[in-house]
Amino acid sequence: MSKLSLGRKTSSGKLSSWVQPSFGDFFAGSGLNSVPSSKGLSGESKSKARSSSTDVGGKKPKKRKGEPQSSKPEPGIFSNRQGSQDEPWVDVHSPQTQAELAVHKKKVEEVETWLKDHLDTKSGNKGGSVLVLTGPSGCGKTATLHVLAKDSSCHIQEWTNPTTAEYRTDESFRDSFDPASRFNSFHSSSQTAAFQEFLLRANKYNRLQMSGDDAGAPERKIVLVEDFPNQFYRQPGCLHDILRRYRRTGRCPLVFIVSDSLSGDTSSRLLFPKDVQEELSIHSISFNPVAPTSMMKVLSRIATLEASKSAGRNSVPDKATLEQLCSGSSGDVRSAINSLQFFSYTGADFSLEQSLWASKKGKSSTAASKPRSKGRGRPAKASTALEESPAIGGKDASLFLFRALGKILYCKRESYEEGDVPELPAHLSEHQRDKLLVDPELVIERSHMSGEFFNLYLHQNYVDFFSDVEDVARASEYLSDADFLTAEWTSRSTMLGYGSSVATRGLIHSNAARAQAAHQSSVGFKPLHKPHWLHINKTFRENYLTAQSLFISFCLTPVSLVTELVPYLAKLSNPMRNQAQITFIQDVGHLSLRRFPGRLQLEALGDKDPGLLDLDSDHEDTGTKSTEPSTQNPLSGETIAVPTLPNSQEPGGDLPASQPQPTTSQALLDEEDLLIEEYDSD
Amino acid sequence: MSLWVDKYRPTSLAKLDYHKEQANHLKNLVQCGDFPHLLVYGPSGAGKKTRIMCLLRELYGAGVEKLRIEHQSIVAPSKKKIEINTIASNYHLEVNPSDAGNSDRVVIQELIKTVAQSQQIQSSTQREFKVVLLTEVDRLTKDAQHALRRTMEKYMSTCRLILCCNSTSKVISPIRSRCLAVRVPLPSTEEVCSVLMSVCKKEGLLLPAELARQVAEKSGRNLRKALLMCEACRVQQYPFSADQEIPATDWEVYLRETANAIVNQQSPQRLLEVRARLYELLTHCIPAEIIMKGLVTELLSNCDGHLKPEVAQMAAYYEHRLQLGNKAIYHLEAFVAKFMAIYKKFMEDGLDNFMF
């Protein structure tokens, strides 16, 4: 379904040729008019059309779900549009008032106050102010902004990336080969320049006063950017420069809307890094996925509206179906509404249950209708949602790493109801646990990480959640088991799943303090951290190799080199041959004997951080450098003076002088060397 | 100025300080100008390399002492380029094939082939064969060891191999049977003492016999370590006093403190601190096995006799895991946590018995 709306958005003209017939079957089956309304508006006119609100034509293809008309829609037009069945419901039912928004009230208020503060340019704050809205797709960012803009009666001017098709039309293409019109054929400029000009114009010029507008009222405007010119992804600095200029000269608030994604390179962090945000005092508001309750409200509202309108042709999904839609969409209103529309079309003769939840097991249909025991039945809902995912229409659920880790480490449990408590024999009673509410394998799958990395994250963080050493011992044993399972590289791909299962389930089970649901509330919020191991391992190996190449002249095995020679060299006044060796010895040979090593800074894991490990982070290297002066041994005066020795930096001179070697042969060496390499370590 | 270890290293078989009988045997072995493949093994710091170099000198004269470091790059059949450092004289080539990791087989085959195929120019004055000295043979993969076996037979006419390792248990038996095995045991404490005394005498220093003895004991009869220690003592304080404190390496002290931290308190927070310390040791190049071994030694000396078998068994279990697994920290930490659990339980039980 989301594909459909996406297709509409991008190439409305093409759409009718190949997408429509496939859906025509559906429409014809239910006796509906199957002609899509979106025609005639080509891509290039869209961007301009958008900026003026006069062509509020009902046929305008919508780009985003929650995008209401920028001016008040005429009631007449609205009802007309409701008549046409193939208009996406997301557009038809786009929220018009704050009450209709599925977004949490607090968030709306937050955005509203910001807008209020910054819309009044007269009230002293000079320069343009910038707001960034972030959140997963379909959580109502755009809708909120549009509704608020309407409420405060200001006009939204949106940037759209110019399409290259603009000068690729047949005519201009032919023109480009026409020598006469050579000079004005390619009038395209770079997207960045176009963007800059757009900002300038949006800033300077007011909208034209058209008839029918209530003239005279001071024009207030918000500039909205959802599409980013591609150049900015490659060179975020470009955007920052423009923003800096805008800060100084801009008059109206500038709003960026960035969707979060799980796939590593979160564009919001790339485009708006923390330091730039601070420098330009960019205000950032992050949206959460839509809560199930408000989503339910929206869905049932739309369902009843549509049902009454279609006079029985559309089936009204029952509550259970709505709930499943709700949980299947994982907080994405747009996809939920799209699915809802799709399901309603399939008609009553279809068995909804069967067609939608193809993957459902037999028990689940009873589970859905089973009377809920407590409160609003949320735990039960959560567990069913985890068990089944809809065959179609469901959004691919995913979890941010932070939440995935939390699910495992906090391991929510639910106490059994009276009667069906499985009893363990007495000697196993210590393993009695309440029912687990998370499915570890599913959590790992949704975290989009390999089990190995996930285990590393768990390992870094699990100790904080334990209070008893024996439990920790058991948990660490499971982690060790998991590593052991994946040790053999030939079978690793098969064993990875088992390894992570063992690790996660082992961790959950061994946390005896959290075995009963009743005692679980004790652990407060604990910050999570990124794993150290990869960095440590890398440093270890680098140092190991460096040691070997630096001290090859001592002809020692690596182990005795690093455990005997280097540490003792650090204690001796023996002159080193080159600076690299001195630095290495000071760095590696010495251990600061303070009680708590200060070198390992914990790097906190943010709630939106991607699960990728930046191996190149050098934050520890800088730490090392800074401690170096303090770790200099008392002999450093002596050692530093050494490089003035004759063969200090000469690679050719780095012969194993330590080896049994008559000093008289030294002179001959240079001539005899066949191949002497430089092994000055980096 | 070089280290005492290198400065006073004996250069001929006749000048060796201990195992003189064995030195005699070796001398007789090369007397006729030829010798079989050798497998020299023994613990670290016993003098294996010293003996091998003496042997080569006996064979080729002072020429073997003119060493140069060569940087060789070998292209594996899979087009992977392997870089390896070798130490060579005109007569021999020393290489540590395990530097190449998994590609050690290629290194062995290619290196020995190139050495063996190049004939000696002046065979009248020289031997007819070159010597390839392979160190750390026990760390070779099985694959490489089998390759070594074939190579040994193939190039017997132009090339002799001297294999050097700590233990023969990881060397496959076909190789062991093709070599003359020479075991170099650790010197006795007295021998270490006498070496220390003579070195100090040559340096013009006066070493009290008591201190020499302490150094020898503390070094675990590892002569290299003993000499390094002795030199560190000299830096620390001279003239020597008999009851002088012998400087230990930083990592040993650090490891001991870590062990004490484990014994002093058993809690998840302490485990986190220990983990940070383990990481610190690893970044300072101390291999995980050494950490494990050091920890066990320290912990065993700290805990009650009843616990010792259990702790030792655990240590063996996790050491095994360490060898098989990928990420050392899991296993190190599991061992520490396990020890903490056992120790805590033991202490609590002990307390209970004491109370009632």
Strand content of chain A: under 5%
Q: What's the CATH class of the largest domain in chain B, please?
A: Alpha Beta
Give the neighbour order of strands across the main sheet of chain A. Answer: 2-3-4-1-5
CATH architecture of the largest domain in chain B: 3-Layer(aba) Sandwich
State the total count of DSSP E strands of chain B.
7
The average pLDDT value of chain A, as a whole number, equals 66
Question: How many helical elements of chain A?
Answer: 31
Shape of chain B: globular
Q: What average pLDDT do the residues of chain B reach? A: 87
Total individual domains of chain A: 4
Strand order of the largest sheet of chain B: 2-3-4-5-6-1-7
Count up the helices of chain B: 14
Subcellular location (chain A): Nucleus
Main location (chain A): nucleus
InterPro entries (chain A): Checkpoint_prot_Rad17_Rad24, P-loop_NTPase, Rad17/Rad24_fun/met
Keywords (chain A): ATP-binding, Cell cycle, DNA damage, Nucleotide-binding, Nucleus
Kindly list the characteristics that best describe this protein.
heterodimer; A: 682 residues; mainly alpha; Rossmann fold; 4 domains; five-stranded parallel sheet; two-stranded antiparallel sheet; 31 helices; 48% helix; disordered C terminus; B: 356 residues; alpha/beta; Zinc Finger, Delta Prime, domain 3; seven-stranded mixed sheet; 14 helices; 7 strands; 12% strand; globular
